[in-house]
User: Which sequence fits this backbone?
């Protein structure tokens, strides 16, 4: 994939054009209706390389592997988290979405150098750098606005690293700065672990 | 052009022998070739169902997408490239059930496309559950005591919403179907063609014989196709149900794509234009 160019994100379709051509990286050249002589056939059902509906077992396996290799590319292209502070051997607080700025303010009020923050503006797929990021942290805290720790589960599923503490708010409103600062302080003082 | 230009070879056919879909498929191939359209100029958009598989059994560009979502996708295709001939194809379940909301708003938007609905009054792909057009009293493996919901009247619905072109035919009336589908494709604006069609495996009520006995072909002069009120009367009539063009707007009505700002200054389809790469790159970089 040529990441730098938008104008070459499609090709002129020639005779024998295959919308789902099997390629090394899983990305097939994209034809556009009206541009070229080849027919462009797009299908939501399982299909062969031409887009024709097809349930052949081997083809099904190849197509599924093709899809999964595109996930690898997406992991590389995903937005990495914004890291504040030095996460190495630190107590790393993870958050996503609108919790981020509130958490940043709460951490500033605590003024601790051994606490770092990683904020995710894209929750899935996780950027490939996240594996090292969480592996290098001494302690992982996930702060998020739901009752089950959904992002903490996703982090564990994707990296194997279980959060040491969860800071959850599911009262129907956003965390307040004070609420987060107080919760973090309690955890850092060695309070109740989850 | 020879309709054989639209044939595809070595295809496993999933329709039952005797299915009305075969007649609709060959009629569609004939019409497109009569109009001198090459498969490269035609986009066949469908959702899910046996009727929605029609695009797989002929040449042309195709998008078979989500259940009930043929119309918004077809509208998008037309908006991205108004030079293409676009058809949205599916059954009564897909278009009137899962796609019911999209139908309402496609009619309002009035894109220049042709909507073929193979109406066999049953969900055939999933083996015989009641569809939005199944008659009251029809027993199925799910509606074991018989259907009790009122069937949807697609023609009356379309006319009441101001559809630009509304017609009904019967798959076995191949001459009539050919004329209607051809007129619908030529018509500029949204065109609904409801096609009565027997499901020989799963609908034992609405059979070939039933459709023959419960329909009649409107003769020339029997209706003024520009009169919405008269069309509504015909849409509400039956049995026997009238077959033919019930309503057609006079030429001149503006379409969805014609009103898009993208075509105000130039008519080129979107793919022919170069995007402002610098602006897009800067925007994406700003997010990193």
Assistant:
């Amino acid at each position: 994939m040529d990441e730098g160019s938008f104008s070459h994100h499609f090709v002129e379709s020639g005779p024998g054009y295959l919308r789902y051509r099997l390629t090394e990286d899983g990305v097939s050249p994209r034809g556009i209706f009206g541009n070229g002589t080849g027919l462009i056939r797009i299908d939501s059902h399982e299909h062969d390389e031409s887009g024709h509906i097809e349930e052949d077992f081997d083809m099904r396996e190849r197509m599924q592997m093709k899809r999964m290799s595109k996930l690898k590319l997406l992991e590389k292209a995903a937005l990495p988290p914004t890291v504040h502070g030095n996460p190495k051997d630190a107590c790393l607080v993870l958050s996503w979405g609108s919790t981020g700025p509130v958490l940043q303010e709460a951490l500033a009020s605590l003024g601790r150098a051994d606490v770092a923050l990683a904020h995710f503006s894209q929750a899935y797929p996780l950027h490939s750098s996240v594996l090292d990021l969480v592996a290098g942290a001494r302690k992982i805290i996930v702060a998020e606005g739901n009752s089950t720790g959904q992002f903490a589960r996703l982090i564990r599923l994707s990296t194997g690293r279980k959060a040491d503490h969860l800071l959850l708010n599911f009262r129907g409103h956003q965390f307040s700065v004070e609420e987060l600062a107080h919760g973090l302080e309690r955890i850092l003082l060695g309070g109740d672990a989850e | 052009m020879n309709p054989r230009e639209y044939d595809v070879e070595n295809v496993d056919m999933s329709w039952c022998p005797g299915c009305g879909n075969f007649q609709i498929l060959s009629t569609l191939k004939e019409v497109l070739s009569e109009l001198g359209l090459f498969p490269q100029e035609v986009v066949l958009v469908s959702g899910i169902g046996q009727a929605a598989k029609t695009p797989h059994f002929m040449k042309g560009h195709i998008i078979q997408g989500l259940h009930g979502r043929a119309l918004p996708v077809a509208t998008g295709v037309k908006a991205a490239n108004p030079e293409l001939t676009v058809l949205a194809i599916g059954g009564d379940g897909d278009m009137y059930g899962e796609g019911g909301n999209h139908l309402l708003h496609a009619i309002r938007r009035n894109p220049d496309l042709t909507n073929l609905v193979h109406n066999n009054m049953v969900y055939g792909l999933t083996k015989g559950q009641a569809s939005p057009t199944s008659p009251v009293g029809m027993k199925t493996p799910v509606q074991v005591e018989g259907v009790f919901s009122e069937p949807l009247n697609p023609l009356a619905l379309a006319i009441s919403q101001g559809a630009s072109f509304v017609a009904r035919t019967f798959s076995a009336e191949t001459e009539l179907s050919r004329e209607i589908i051809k007129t619908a494709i030529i018509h500029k604006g949204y065109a609904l063609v409801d096609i009565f069609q027997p499901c020989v495996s799963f609908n034992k009520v609405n059979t070939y014989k039933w459709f023959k006995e419960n329909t009649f072909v409107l003769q020339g002069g029997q209706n003024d196709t520009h009169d919405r009120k008269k069309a509504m009367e015909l849409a509400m009539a039956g049995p026997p149900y009238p077959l033919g063009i019930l309503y057609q707007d006079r030429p001149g009505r503006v379409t969805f794509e014609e009103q898009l700002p993208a075509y105000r200054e130039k008519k080129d389809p979107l793919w022919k234009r170069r995007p402002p790469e610098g602006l897009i790159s800067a925007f994406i970089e700003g997010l990193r």
Remarks:
- Chain A has two domains: 11-77, 82-188.
- Residues 82-188 of chain A form a domain with the Rossmann fold fold (CATH 3.40.50.920).
- The mean pLDDT of chain A is 92.
- The helical segments of chain A are 57-77, 99-110, 130-135, 150-159, 177-188.
